[in-house]
Amino acid sequence: MSVDSIFLLKLLTAAILLATPLLLAALGELVVEKSGVLNLGVEGMMLIGALFGYIAAYNLQTITCLEELVPGFCQKEERVFTFADYIIALLAAATAGALLAAVFGFLTQGLRANHVAVGLGLSILGAGLSNSLGSNFFGVNYTSVQVADHPEVFGKDALVWFSLAAVPTIWYVLQRTRLGLVIRAVGENHDSAYALGYRVSRIRFYCILFGGAMAGLAGAFIVLVHVDWKEGVTVGKGWLALALILFGTWRPMRVLCGAYIFGLLWASELRLDNLFPAWQLEWKTLLTTAPYLLTIIVLVLISRNPRMIRQNAPASLGKPFNPPS
Amino acid sequence: MKKLLLTAAATLLIGGLAHADKTKVGFIYVGPIGDLGWTYRHDIGRLAIEKEFGDQVETTYIENVPEGAEAVKQITQLAETGHDIIFTTSFGFMDPTNQVAKQYPDVKFEHATGFKRESDNVSTFSARFYEGRVVQGLLAAKMTKTNKIGYIASFPIPEVVRGINAFQLELAKHNPDAKVDVKWVFTWFDPAKEAEAAQAFIDAGADIIVQHTDSPAAMSIAEKNPGVYAFGQASNMSRFGATSHLVSIVDNWDSYYIDRVAAAIDGSWSQTDTWWGLSKDGQGNGVGMVEMASYGNMPEELIAEAVALQESLRSGERHSFPCPVYKQDGELAEDCAGDGKQLADFPTLVSMDWYVQGIEGSLPK
């Protein structure tokens, strides 16, 4: 077996590309769930974030014509997409994700609707809305809608660093700060938190907005760093992010590990011919299902250990809060 | 989103009841129209029907229908709401289409790329995309520098296998040193996975990417890697590969769709099995279902050679699978025994489930 360091480096690069959107979306949803809210609309928020991030990037890039054949028809053009443009596009994506999350927040926190039903609705809404807005914006036949590459930071995308930095930050905020304590209190027992004088619905609403913004960034990563915008481009990554939180038992470090294990498994599946040329195809395709199988196995294992669940799962998860009047 | 569309469709249908004399044409799509590939081209066909027949017809479509039980529900939905002719446009809709067709004998069903016609109201149609693969085989043979070619394959169904084999036969003819590596991704549409498969090929030294999946993601990846070329699939993908796009195989369903809807309107519709290539009859007559679009990023002489090959395939002068054809293990294909000239449509090509010589690895079952 000849596995050289260049091959491993490329494998890791591919794994990072696949893992980062999962990590971003899962970290956002982790905070949401820690506050006792189950938002199943991650997929929809990712799609909306992806679309608006892409629209913003498309409009922000500067296109200079290098060779004009006849006036108005450019033979050769140069597209420049600066780092500042990239940050603005990411902000647009985060805002779009947060706005869609606000709809969820209003329905579940304002009108006390069922979390699961509204979350599912949000996924469907996000997918449909992004498709119809996308084809309105770009046209069904969108010609030359392309965003140029943006500058990288230390050889990697800025969002990759951001997602990695977010892991300890979120851990620190949740475990070591007053704000984190309040969020966790609301998620563990909303009645007690309310009795202590915390505004349960408002705190949850802010967490939902944060989750939406992170999902928006996750979507933007897919379309700005990996592939261009296409309808339904996330293909279930949002659902996988939800599974990832269970896999990581609501702990940021474990979610990080989970995201990179998932990413590595996918990247390996497509490169196994180089790793193990003799392997049967059936074994290789089994790797595609590995993330899902692993989640099921981990779920079975942790559900056999009630202490682990009690320690990590927010006790009020998914329960609508009705303030005592 | 499907549900949203369905509601929209239902509203349209209720509105449509007032004009009961219109012929209603329904479409079931496996992906989104915005895939800019396979489903996009079927929707162009739907629009061609609207343009041709104007007020005489009314069209409906449902996107993103999963293959399997869900498809039965959606096809039934269209049959139930008064559609006269329903096009189901993916191989995986084969059994659902036949199942629903038995219950609605008055509705005409048109299933793409399948081979089952269990009742009289089911027709099948497909395109000889492999004729385009022959041209791609020639181009890949001449354009590769590393002699490594990556082929992104979706599912191991005859349509995809025919493409791989036609490609390999022509490739080996012009460049025996070039090797095709096939990766099965088991999806028609997953841009991130298609892109990653392309990247994995490029990392392993491939400089030509061939795809039989639906999105232009692989083309975008080729474009990001200088010196790598790629072929477009299903629709013209040249705009995603300004410096890497060699040629696209474009599906053209317009002419078939118009023929079939015209037959449904005038009552002459009957069960058929249609298989058009670059031309309607394989002899160079009529507009077929396969087009080659936007040759580029190669020397002029090579374009001329490719166009000449395309023309000989269109006129029937050349067959895509001329004898002798050897299977992977070196055995001569049955059709080529004796004085066989080429592989036969039935049963060899329609049910092709073996690799030709030169392709390594096993075909998943």
Write the layout of secondary structure elements.
The complex is a heterodimer of chains A (325) and B (365).
Chain A: H1 5-34, H2 42-60, E1 62-70, E2 73-80, H3 83-110, H4 115-138, H5 158-176, H6 178-188, H7 190-195, H8 200-226, H9 237-247, H10 252-275, H11 281-303, H12 306-312
Antiparallel strand pairs in A: 1-2
Chain B: H1 2-16, E1 23-28, H2 38-53, E2 57-62, H3 69-80, E3 85-88, H4 94-103, E4 108-112, E5 122-127, H5 130-143, E6 148-153, H6 158-174, E7 179-184, H7 191-203, E8 208-212, H8 217-224, E9 229-234, E10 245-251, H9 254-266, E11 273-276, E12 290-293, H10 300-314, H11 345-349
Parallel strand pairs in B: 1-2, 1-3, 3-4, 4-5, 5-11, 6-7, 6-8, 8-9, 9-10
Antiparallel strand pairs in B: 10-12
How is the CATH topology of the largest domain in chain B named? Rossmann fold
The counted number of beta strands of chain B is 12
Counting DSSP E segments of at least 2 residues, the number of strands of chain A comes to 2
Distance linking N and C termini of chain B = 33 Å
Key traits:
heterodimer; A: about 325 residues; mainly alpha; ABC transporter involved in vitamin B12 uptake, BtuC; two-stranded antiparallel ribbon; about 5% strand; globular; B: about 375 residues; alpha/beta; Rossmann fold; 2 domains; 6-stranded parallel beta sheet
Question: Care to describe what's here?
Answer:
The complex is a heterodimer of chains A (325) and B (365). Chain A is mainly alpha-helical and 325 residues long. Chain A is built from 12 helices and 2 strands, in the order H-H-E-E-H-H-H-H-H-H-H-H-H-H. Chain A has one domain (5-312): ABC transporter involved in vitamin B12 uptake, BtuC (Orthogonal Bundle), CATH 1.10.3470. Helix content of chain A is 70%, strand content 5%. A two-stranded antiparallel ribbon of chain A has the order 1-2. In chain A, a hairpin with a 2-residue loop joins strand 1 and strand 2 (73-80). The longest helix of chain A has 30 residues, at 5-34. The relative contact order of chain B is 0.13. Chain B is α/β, with parallel strands linked by helices and 365 residues long. Chain B has helices spanning 2-16, 38-53, 69-80, 94-103, 130-143, 158-174, 191-203, 217-224, 254-266, 300-314, 345-349; strands at 23-28, 57-62, 85-88, 108-112, 122-127, 148-153, 179-184, 208-212, 229-234, 245-251, 273-276, 290-293. Classes of the chains: A mainly alpha (325), B alpha/beta (365).
